[in-house]
Write a structure and sequence with these properties.
2 copies of one chain form a homodimer. Chain A is of the alpha/beta class. The first copy, chain A, has 3 domains: about 5-45, 434 Repressor (Amino-terminal Domain), CATH 1.10.260.40; about 60-165 and about 300-330, Response regulator (Rossmann fold, 3-Layer(aba) Sandwich), CATH 3.40.50.2300; about 165-295 and about 330-340, Response regulator (Rossmann fold, 3-Layer(aba) Sandwich). Helices cover about 45% and strands about 15% of the residues of chain A. Chain A has 13 helices and 12 strands. In chain A, the strands form 2 sheets. Chain A has a 6-stranded parallel beta sheet with strand order 2-1-3-4-5-11, sandwiched between helices. A 6-stranded mixed beta sheet of chain A has the order 7-6-8-9-10-12, with helices on both faces. In chain A, helix 11 links the parallel strand 8 and strand 9. Chain A starts with a helix and ends in a 7-residue tail after the last strand. The relative contact order of chain A is 0.12. Strand 2 (about 95-105) of chain A pairs antiparallel with strand 2 of chain B, so a sheet runs across the interface. Chain B binds a DNA duplex through helix 2 and helix 4.
DNA sequence: TTGTAGGCGTTATCAG
DNA sequence: CTGATAACGCCTACAA
């Protein structure tokens, strides 16, 4: 592999000039630039990214940290897939690298080390939740004022940057939709409470009911963990409570699909016996039988926005490392599962 | 950020010793090692990955190159999700970094540049197909004898490393399954022909039919592009040919689902009017109505295997950069769509 | 078992 | 506009 010195010699300039040309820095005579570029092409020379990073003291990478659980193929979920695509879009357009990192959700992840070892210049944390081990890691990051952003998960710490969707409002609208169709007995199958968005969904659910004076009924609140299996497992309980239910709001599409499959297995006819409104508008939503009325979340946009904000902070000289706090809107997609 | 020099001073050793301790290289007195580790901890020191890479002349990254098409969120497909998860598993266990790279399928991607700029030490190419622009890129890579591997796509060039699944056999078994149920009029909705696995499916389809003496009928061969939409579009044609069909073999789950939705929209009752066997066993397969009989492909394993093989070549001193050529087996998963 | 010292390919600062 | 020349932090023979 040719290096800068050889190019300089061939072009008859100094090494510094070669660097200037290839980095497009400073004013330079057209003729010398052409000579350098030509020499570089002849020698098949390109800047060595590692050496550049080293000299600059920056890796040029945006880290994307995601929970890793053996046997659970997380990418397969719509949530991660879309977020990652959005981040990829931003990273690509800004000329950064996208480094994928896996963490064990059960232990404290040493985010700081990523920066100390200079593997990343900034990072985005996906799938974080409010369990103690994770909070420790995130808070450390915040205290150090390092450039990072958590996706769709609130933390008490005001120093924690976040890009999220407005799940309180999204849930409110979902439940309101059912109410507007004339149903009053509305259950709720929520996901794991350690996710702030689960809590937000509960708030939205409550607000919608209270607004029209429907008494909250704790006995028709169910809990799963956002997996399809957990939805299926909830089916028997929901089936038992069917006389108390006109409809049910479910925290995500996967659980809703599992629930519907379970109920159908128990002899239910959907949506006749129970109206269902889900959440995410993943690919599976329109595949489901009946197709799901669901809340569309702009995951792709969220990922892109987070990445763009972070990388801007890194690039712009003026912009300080300030806390990011964005909340995007959701949209209700009406299909058959909520009745016609 | 503390650096090696400070640690060396605090520990009262030379910088070289600090490196040795942190890299676990060579014999050393326990006491000096302890002293160094203690000093490192006190100063919050960790090896600078960029500097290490620079000194070693290697990035320590495995690149994963995938096609990038604006507005098409590729990760959302089961295929990419699983492969990436598998690769992640291997990379993680080998201590490498996983760099995600996006290429424009329409133009020649300069893989060589990835190595020249030292952004990656090896790479895995996902979603490649036999269109001229892509072949040029892949062949360049091969000529240079660079460590890389193409996923699930054959090229004529014997220097191209590949990890694939045996789609010829998978398809054979799928079609055989239908035949064994007593059906003879078996159509085939295949995906785009520029993928070698499409060709392989056709081979398997033919072999199964020929083996039992069923005449090949070109008029019941259909083509889509592996998208759900293309399956839906094929529905009208298939519907028209329904009298010529007992069953249909479909190149992937997404097309099969689109096809079934389209047929149902035209008034078909499935699987009564048409038996369907699909391919991939993606998440959607069991969600479909009726649930899909489909060929399970070990994408996760394929990704892991490719990454492990490549990284081993990089690590092991003895193993030369040799051509990888692996073919994993598929498995038929029987559900309702093929009848009972 | 440990220290010494050269080198890795840039960037960036300072002259000129 | 261009050339010299220190860093940058670590790895690795080679020497001791």
């Amino acid at each position: 592999m040719a290096n800068r010195k050889e190019v300089a010699k061939l072009a008859g300039v100094s090494e510094a000039t070669v660097s200037r040309v290839l980095n497009g820095i400073g004013p330079m005579k057209e003729s010398t630039r052409d000579r350098v570029l030509e020499a570089a092409k002849r020698l098949n020379y390109e800047l060595n990214a590692v050496a550049s990073s080293f000299a600059r003291g920056k890796s040029g990478n945006l880290g994307v940290v995601l929970p890793y659980v053996p046997k659970v193929h997380l990418f397969s979920t719509y949530y991660y897939s879309e977020l990652l695509s959005g981040i990829g879009e931003a990273v690509r357009s800004k000329g950064y690298g996208l480094l994928l990192l896996f963490r064990d959700p059960a232990s404290v992840y040493d985010y700081i080390s990523l920066y100390r070892t200079q593997r990343v210049d900034a990072c985005i944390v996906l799938g974080a939740s409010a369990v103690p081990s994770e909070m420790v890691g995130i808070n450390q990051l915040a205290e150090e004022r390092l450039p990072f952003c958590v996706m769709d998960q609130r933390f008490d710490n005001p120093l924690v940057s976040i890009v999220a969707a407005d799940h309180e409002q999204g849930s409110y609208e979902a439940v309101k939709h059912i109410i507007n169709k004339g149903y009053r007995k509305i259950g709720f199958l929520n996901g794991s409470p350690q996710y702030s968005n689960s809590q937000d969904r509960l708030l939205g659910y409550r607000r919608a009911l209270q607004e029209v004076g429907i008494q909250l009924d704790e006995s028709i609140r169910y809990e799963g963990n956002y997996s399809r299996t957990s939805g299926t497992q909830a089916a028997s309980t929901v089936y038992r409570d069917l006389n108390k239910l006109d409809a049910i709001f479910v925290g995500n599409d996967r659980m809703a699909i599992g629930l519907m499959q379970g109920l159908r297995g128990l002899g239910c006819s959907l949506p006749d016996d129970l109206k269902v409104v889900a959440y995410d508008d993943s690919d599976a939503a329109s595949l489901a039988e009946p197709p799901l009325t669901t809340v569309k979340v702009p995951f792709f946009e969220m990922g892109r926005l987070a990445a763009e904000k972070l990388l801007s902070q890194l690039t712009d000289k003026d912009s300080e490392v300030s806390v990011i706090n964005e909340k995007l809107q959701t949209e209700l997609i009406v299909r058959k599962s909520s009745g016609n």
